[in-house]
């Protein structure tokens, strides 16, 4: 005899089962793909449903090939051949948006899934979004070539929601092609209580700041700040008086790095990260004597060896090296100078008494030695190891006996199997480049091959104007110089030409009339008559004055405006058909009650023509 248990009794039994397994839990929302009832968690799909169990299917069914029954009730969501001609997207996604969950304690999503025969290229997993940002992405089933991957029937998984989150959204995705099958059922949002705090919590945590010298003179030198952060926060701004902020934007980019240029030794600064739910301050008191004048530079760094450099028959961390180069015309006493990596755990190498470095000479510090180690310049062996990072940010520092920095090299990710080097030797204005970019047949050269720079650059600066950037540079000497090409980039990956200037009297100016909003990176490409070239830069400048920015876009709940706007800025929002949706004032606008679609935000006042900004409401 078949016994039919009413659906409400199933839920009650589930509730009792949960009660006996630990702390009491409330089912806040659920979705079991049956008839909607109060408490049902709605879902949306990126692909319109189709099919009823055959090939293909992206829909609610009662059975499908290989899955004869639901996890609970009569129906479940079934996926069969998700990447097909009927689907508008190659990856099918189900989105369960729980909205505001800040009052829930120990909240978690729980769901059941059943996968049959996932092979190479097939994946099933989830993405958890907190406060509008991706928090984690997990593959639960990863298909395998040569044999399908299946679960042991229906299995359950739990996705915890951190207590600081204001909103939560879970996306289940199916990246699958062919006659393989998956099912999803009984998704719930559980919590141990509903009396949690909705107090605003900043979604950003600042890391440990790192200061690097950008100049080495007898006067107050320039200092660059690098500040890692975790998380993100819509509407936040990074500000500092007396410096230029660049790097990642924590209002848009989760887990990044803030970069501040233009700071100076001996000065005090306050970096502010505010807006949204954040009001963070970082006080910076820069030492007056951190950077010392020097003709020494760190010319080449090998952090990720790809060949046996030290001749011991192995390719490992013992093949790392750092090359020091004297760019000046005078011999430098380097006795008791110390070489450090970014761990600040003590010197990796100490130059012996009496050590000197002549004009245009190099000295190489190897991580480890061997009987077969040879070099065409003076060298030494590190004390134990160099310890250079090959896949994360690293700084190599040379200090004089007084502990002041005389040379420094920083990089985010060492290129695999090759060094980073200055080119020509000692050309710090050109920045570090992978060795293969200057010699395709080599990966490193642990003793410099001295090449005279065709241009001795005195300075290269970028100055923000109202809607433009002015580039100035000057040279002390030029040999065989044909012209300069000024290039611009948003993020430092791809550069485009802004303009060209022929060789002249040594003083140059070029104005970029179409810079990017926000950060711009500029570099000089110097070209010889014989086709050789040298790169100087990049340098950074921000152009925020006069530019109005709307973010985030697309938006879930609130849009924010940045730029030169009054606190009571008049704002009108129109639907795409011209219907007025809202008239308000300010630079933070709540659009959470708007239906999904396209809108235009119009700014009025200030004596100029109204300005319109388009955004998408999700």
Automatic annotation (TrEMBL):
Pfam family, one: LTD
Superkingdom to which the source organism belongs: Bacteria
Cell division among keywords: no
Occurrences of domain LTD (ranges): 287-413
Keywords: Signal
SUPFAM superfamilies (alphabetical): Lamin A/C globular tail domain
UniProt keyword annotation of Signal present: yes
PROSITE patterns attached to this UniProt entry: LTD
Signal peptide (UniProt feature, chain positions): 1-24
Name this polypeptide is given: LTD domain-containing protein
UniProt source species: Neolewinella maritima
């Amino acid at each position: 005899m078949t016994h039919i248990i009413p659906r409400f009794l199933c839920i009650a039994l589930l509730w009792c089962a949960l009660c006996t397994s630990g702390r009491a839990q409330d089912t806040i929302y659920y979705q079991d793909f049956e008839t909607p009832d109060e408490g049902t968690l709605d879902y949306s799909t990126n692909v319109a449903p189709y099919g009823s169990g055959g090939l293909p299917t992206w829909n609610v069914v009662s059975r499908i090939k290989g899955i004869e029954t639901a996890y609970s009730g009569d129906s479940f969501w079934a996926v069969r051949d998700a990447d097909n001609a009927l689907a508008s997207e190659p990856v099918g996604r189900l989105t369960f948006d729980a909205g505001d969950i800040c009052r829930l304690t120990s909240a978690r999503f729980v769901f059941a899934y059943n996968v049959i025969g996932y092979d190479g290229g097939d994946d099933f997993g989830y993405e958890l979004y907190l406060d509008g940002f991706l928090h984690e992405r997990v593959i639960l089933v990863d298909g395998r070539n040569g044999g399908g991957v299946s679960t042991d029937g229906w299995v359950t998984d739990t996705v915890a929601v951190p207590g600081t989150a204001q909103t939560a959204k879970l996306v289940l995705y199916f990246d699958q092609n062919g006659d393989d099958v998956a099912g999803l059922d009984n998704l719930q949002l559980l919590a141990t209580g509903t009396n949690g705090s909705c107090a605003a919590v900043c979604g950003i945590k600042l890391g440990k700041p790192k200061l690097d010298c950008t100049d080495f003179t007898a006067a107050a030198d320039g200092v660059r700040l690098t500040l890692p952060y975790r998380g993100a926060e819509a509407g936040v701004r990074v500000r500092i008086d007396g410096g230029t902020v660049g790097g990642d934007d924590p209002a848009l980019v989760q887990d990044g790095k803030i970069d501040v240029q233009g700071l100076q030794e001996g000065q005090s600064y306050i970096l502010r990260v505010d807006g949204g739910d954040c009001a963070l301050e970082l006080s910076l008191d820069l030492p007056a004597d951190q950077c010392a004048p020097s003709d020494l530079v760190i010319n080449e760094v090998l952090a990720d060896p790809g060949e046996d450099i030290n001749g011991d028959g192995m390719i490992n961390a013992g093949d790392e090296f750092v090359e020091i180069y004297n760019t000046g015309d005078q011999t430098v006493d380097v006795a008791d100078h110390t070489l450090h990596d970014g761990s600040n755990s003590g010197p990796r190498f100490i130059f012996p008494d009496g050590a000197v470095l002549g004009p245009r000479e190099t000295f190489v510090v190897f991580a480890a030695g061997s009987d077969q180690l040879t070099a065409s310049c003076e060298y030494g062996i590190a004390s134990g190891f160099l310890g250079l990072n090959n896949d994360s940010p690293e700084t190599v520092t040379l200090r004089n006996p007084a502990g002041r920095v005389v040379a420094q090299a920083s990089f985010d990710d060492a290129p695999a199997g090759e060094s980073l080097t200055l080119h020509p030797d000692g050309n710090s204005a050109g920045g570090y480049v992978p060795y293969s970019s200057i010699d395709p047949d080599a990966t490193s050269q642990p003793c410099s091959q001295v090449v005279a720079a065709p241009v001795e650059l005195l300075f290269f600066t970028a100055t923000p104007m109202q809607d433009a950037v002015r580039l100035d540079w000057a040279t002390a000497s030029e040999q065989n110089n044909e012209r300069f090409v000024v290039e611009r980039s948003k993020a430092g990956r791809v550069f485009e030409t802004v303009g060209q200037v022929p060789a002249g009297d040594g003083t140059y100016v070029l104005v970029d009339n179409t810079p990017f909003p926000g950060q711009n990176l500029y570099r000089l490409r110097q070209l010889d008559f014989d086709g050789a070239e040298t790169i100087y830069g990049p340098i950074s400048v921000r152009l925020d004055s006069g530019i109005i920015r709307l973010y985030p876009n697309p938006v879930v709940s609130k849009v924010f405006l940045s730029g030169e706007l009054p606190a009571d800025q008049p704002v009108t929002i129109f639907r795409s058909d011209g219907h007025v949706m809202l008239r308000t004032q300010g630079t933070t606008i709540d659009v959470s009650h708007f239906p999904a679609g396209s809108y235009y935000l119009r700014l009025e006042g200030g004596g100029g023509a109204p300005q319109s900004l388009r955004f998408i409401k999700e």
